[in-house]
Write a structure and sequence with these properties.
- The complex is a heterodimer.
- Chain A has helices at 4-7, 21-38, 53-61, 72-86, 113-133, 135-140, 146-164, 166-178, 195-211, 224-239, 247-254, 260-281, 283-303, 309-322, 338-354, 358-363, 373-383, 386-393, 396-402, 426-437, 440-443, 474-488, and strands at 46-51, 95-98, 103-108, 405-410, 415-420, 446-452, 460-465, 492-497, 504-510.
- By secondary structure, chain A is of the alpha/beta class.
- Among the domains of chain A are: 4-134 and 282-316, no CATH class; 323-441, no CATH class; 445-510, no CATH class.
- Chain B is an alpha/beta fold.
- Chain B folds into three domains: 19-56 and 110-125, no CATH class; 134-142 and 240-435, Rossmann fold (3-Layer(aba) Sandwich); 158-235.
- The longest helix of chain B is centred in the middle third of the chain and has 21 residues, at 259-279.
- Classes of the chains: A alpha/beta, B alpha/beta.
- Strand 5 (415-420) of chain A pairs antiparallel with strand 4 (87-89) of chain B.
């Protein structure tokens, strides 16, 4: 394998568009040499699976996972994708990659040899490296266990369907799916300590007390009675871990009338939501990393003579399509292309490292002129998510290249106003505003369970902190709240609160319909 | 690295999900199927196709922020002219300088479109429907037969000789009766020849020759093939269900039939066509239009070409009879007829029509449906009792006599399907006097 560079220089890995399994193996080995040897990527072992169109559509509909429980909504997505694909309105992805160990990449059988090379470089090395090294993924996902867990989930849900009926499980899943976006922990929770660490902590505390012991403290008068008053309310909330933003978690642990299997299914949905949570926070970086990797790898393959000129042109054509960013007034515009932005920023970081301008020296003193751009990039890929990445690394040069501008839309004003453009005064503002767009705390509504009196009427109270006075979409909110009430089993009240003034802007209420809680009349 | 070829994995992994989805959206899909069938031509009405469902029917709700109101930031690429502090008039129909905020799941207010396979389409369309019992009678009566293999017989024509079976029988008989095999005889002869003729082993030779004689006699007595062994392939006639149907569409196209009425009629024909298509391998459609004279035409002319004249229903029946005699022998065709009319008929023609129908048409028909189409919002001033049309009165008497005939009145598009269902609903015995 190591004699590739010298020995086979000038002999391409393949010619034309056809490929076979030998080709894939050769391509993978050649890429691995560059990716691991030259770029220093650190990847899970790869498993490359070749699939056909129907299987790709299938993977689409079950969020890319190879095994998933059954639910009508997946059938719906499949039907829609299939219809769009048949009508020629939508192409299929060239690949799907799964954050697991080994890292599974699905590649389409229709791809040409060049595309397979691109896809392996992109998914099996670019995404793979990102999955393995980025802190968000490390913190929230378990690549080793996910496939086993999905297997368990599918089996468990099938069992429940057999035992309690498909309808009962379907109702429960409908409700759980509706709350899926609010079934993730955004911050690491404190783990309940085991006995040993508890003991350790007690010992440290005692030592500390002994060290700082001062008998004088005993003489300070205390106000014992007053703390008692407040504590009932507080203790109650503390026991329920309120306020709680993970609504599914709260229901699983607290909902009074759910049965054990129902709690387990809520837990399954919640864990899967949690598994996908990092992906939504790192879309730009993830795609940027993968696109940058495939770009470097393909160019390097070409340099080594392993790719013919014709194949290289084919690659470039596809690559430029992927990183194309239409302007806002272009009919093709549909938001900022994460591939374009991510790839642009990665290239920009490389440029800052190798050919810094005075502006870069000023903005990025830490990395400007750095010797090893790959080391910088690897560090970036490991330690940032989209929001922090933008805040830190969106350079004035990028803002100029994209001609980014910031428009403020205040519903109280008759007109929109341009807040910032790509000039000296605007760079910071644009950086901040763009970062905010990628902050899940801003894009997802902030909904928390704030209170419930389990001894009283058991009404569940939730608050939506309406950032910038943007309310919830009413119809959907009503549906979801109904599902929530069905799961909770008692009345539910959702207040939309203006965080600036703490005034209530709007209230929604729902009463349970039954159906979930008494699925089989028991 | 592993390479796994998944292409050969069983397909249809998503079938269970699809079925669940179909079940969930059944009522919506059914409605969509009926709507989409209206826009198709009769012949391709039952093809697979796309239907679109209203998005909210199979909606998956989630908490998300509404797309208007409040304070919003938009970051857009490709600035050409704006500088800081510019104001832009709010674009109509939503916020944002370019619609940057789609709904989060990419699901707009658009209808949800997806493709149904042909079977799914027709299944939904014809759920719970059934051909009237009459169809079975026809199958039994049918004179068309097909020959089917029915085992073996000991008699038959030489052409049907079952060689294999015959030889098998002969073989087992020969074994059972211990007929000597030619090879044994040959071996015996060889052995005799091998013994020297000079009689050194005279006893042995005599013994062998005796055995040979005995065996030869036995061979002569037991034939190689005995008449007992012979078997013939046996064929028996079976009545063949008539797998083809012809559907006659009769329509009054005189001036009194409005476009609306023709549309109603067309919808009914479409339904009937799909239904028959489901039950028979091959379905022909014959279009006969009539005014005071009738002629057979193609589909396009049938529905779209205007015609004027009086109304004589019997002409259409005569034409139908002619076509049946010419091309569609009742022996090999199931004949269905659907007549649409506004009920007008020349008064003098009623008796002739009734006679034709009772004597000539109904006996050869599987089913005869009469659809009286009315104006969309036909209402009469209070105090007037709506008089039944000439044709209706005529046909009612025929119906009462228990002929395979049904009649209904339809005034609006939405009635077509219910009427159709009513005519072909599974419990035909209970649907009404007409079909009883």
């Amino acid at each position: 394998m190591n004699d590739f560079g010298g020995l086979r220089l000038g002999r391409p890995l393949f010619e034309g568009a056809d490929w076979e399994f030998g080709t894939i193996q050769r391509v993978h080995d050649a890429i691995e040499e560059i990716a691991v040897g030259e770029l220093g990527l650190d990847v899970y072992p790869n498993q490359i699976e070749i699939i056909g169109t129907e299987q790709m559509l299938d993977a689409y509909s079950s969020i890319g996972m190879p095994l998933f429980y059954k639910h009508w909504s997946f059938g719906k997505h499949f039907a829609r994708n299939e219809a769009m694909y048949r009508a020629g309105m939508q192409g299929l992805a060239y690949e799907i990659v799964i954050n697991s160990n080994p890292c599974i990449s699905y590649i389409m059988e229709e791809n040409t040899a060049t595309m397979q090379t691109l896809v392996i470089a992109h998914a099996a090395f670019g995404h793979n490296h990102f999955f393995k090294n980025n802190y968000v993924f490390k913190q929230w996902t378990d690549a080793d266990g996910i496939l086993d867990y999905l297997e368990f989930a599918r089996g468990y849900i099938t069992q429940c369907e057999e035992r309690y009926g498909e309808a009962a499980v379907e109702r429960l899943l409908d409700a759980a799916h509706a709350l899926m976006s609010h079934g993730v922990h955004r911050y690491p929770r404190r783990r309940s300590a085991d006995l040993r660490s508890e003991e350790q902590r007690a010992k440290e505390r005692r030592l500390h007390e002994e060290r700082v012991f001062n008998d004088l403290w005993r003489t300070v008068p205390t106000k014992g009675a007053e703390t008692e008053d407040r504590s009932i309310e507080e203790r109650r909330r503390a026991l329920l871990q309120l306020p709680q933003e993970n609504v599914l978690f709260f229901l699983e642990k607290t909902a009074p009338r759910l049965r054990p299997w129902q709690r387990e299914i809520l837990r399954i949905v919640r864990i899967i939501a949690q598994y996908f949570y990092p992906q939504s926070q790192t879309k730009v970086m993830n795609e940027g990393c993968a696109t940058y990797c495939h770009y470097r790898i393909m160019n390097r393959l070409h340099e080594k003579g392993l790719l013919t000129d014709g194949n290289m042109v084919e690659f470039l054509r596809s690559h430029t399509n992927v990183v194309f960013q239409p302007d806002f007034d272009d009919p093709r515009y549909s938001g900022i292309n994460p591939y374009a932005l991510g790839f642009g920023m990665m290239r920009d970081i490389e440029r800052i490292c190798t050919e810094p301008t005075a502006e870069d020296q000023n903005w990025f003193p830490d990395i400007a002129g750095s010797v090893d751009p790959m080391a910088v990039l690897r560090d970036v890929w490991a330690n940032y998510r989209d929001e922090s990445f933008m805040l830190q690394f969106l350079s004035p040069r990028m803002i100029r290249d994209f001609s980014l501008f910031h428009v403020l839309d205040d519903s109280n004003e008759p007109n929109l106003s341009v807040e910032a453009i790509h000039d000296e005064r605007g760079y910071r503002k644009i950086q901040r505003a763009l970062a905010k767009q990628y902050d899940t705390a801003w894009t997802l509504p902030d909904i928390q369970v704030v209170d419930v009196n389990l001894i009283g009427d058991r009404r569940l109270i939730l608050h939506h902190r309406a950032l910038n006075r943007v309310l919830l979409e009413e119809r959907d909110a009503r549906f979801v709240l109904q599902h929530l009430a069905d799961l909770w089993g008692y009345d539910v009240l959702l207040k939309e609160v203006d965080p600036a003034s703490d005034s209530v802007l709007k209230e929604h209420a729902a009463t349970p319909r039954g159906g979930i809680l008494q699925p089989d009349g028991a | 690295m592993h390479i796994v070829d998944r292409r050969l994995n069983p397909s249809g992994k998503n079938l269970a999900n699809r079925q669940r989805f179909m079940r969930r959206a059944k009522s919506l899909i059914r409605k969509a199927v009926h709507e989409s069938s209206a826009s198709r031509s009769i012949k391709d009405a039952d093809q697979a196709g796309e239907v679109s469902l209203p998005a909210q029917g199979v909606h998956e709700p989630s908490f998300h922020r509404s797309s208007s109101g409040g304070l919003r930031d938009h970051l857009l690429p490709g600035n050409k002219q704006y500088i800081e502090g510019d104001t832009i008039p709010r674009p109509q129909g939503g916020a944002g300088g370019g619609g940057s905020e789609g709904s989060p799941d990419g699901e707009g207010q658009d209808d949800f479109r997806f493709a149904l396979s042909r079977d799914e389409f027709v299944d939904l369309f014809l759920e719970d429907l059934e051909l009237p019992d009459l169809a079975k009678r026809r199958v039994v009566d049918s004179e068309s037969v097909s020959w089917h293999r029915a085992g073996y017989s000991v008699t038959g024509s030489p052409a049907n000789l079952a060689l294999l079976r015959t030889v098998r029988n002969s073989l087992s008989r020969r074994i059972a009766l211990k007929r000597p095999k030619p090879a044994d005889l040959q071996a015996l002869r060889d052995e005799i020849a091998a013994l020297s003729p000079d009689g050194e082993e005279g006893d042995r030779r005599i013994q062998l020759e005796e055995e040979l004689t005995r065996k030869l006699r036995r061979t002569g007595l037991i034939p190689y093939i005995d008449p007992l062994d012979v078997r013939y392939r046996k064929f028996e006639p079976q009545p063949k269900p008539v797998a083809q149907a012809v559907m006659f569409c009769l329509m009054d196209v005189s001036g009194s039939m409005t476009e609306h009425m023709k549309d109603l009629a067309k919808r009914f024909y479409v339904l009937l066509y799909i239904f028959l298509k489901r039950r028979y391998k091959h379905v022909d459609v014959v279009f006969i239009r009539h005014t005071h004279q009738a002629q057979e035409v193609d589909e396009d002319t049938f529905f779209h070409s205007p015609e004027t004249g009086g109304t004589v229903v019997s002409t259409a029946l005569e034409e139908m009879q002619r076509v049946i005699a010419e091309r569609y022998s009742p022996d090999s065709w199931n004949i269905y007829a659907a007549q649409a009319s506004d009920g007008d008929n020349t008064a003098s023609d009623n008796d002739k029509t009734a006679a034709l129908l009772t004597d000539m048409i109904l006996p050869v028909c599987q089913y005869y449906a009469y659809l009286e189409v009315g104006r969309d919002s036909e209402h009469f001033p209070p105090g007037f009792i709506r008089r039944d049309s000439d044709l209706w009165q005529t046909y009612t008497t025929i119906c009462k006599s228990g002929a395979p005939m049904a009649m209904r009145k339809v005034g609006h598009r939405r009635d077509i399907y219910p009427v159709f269902r009513e005519l072909f609903a599974k419990k035909t015995a209970t649907t009404g006097a007409e079909t009883a």
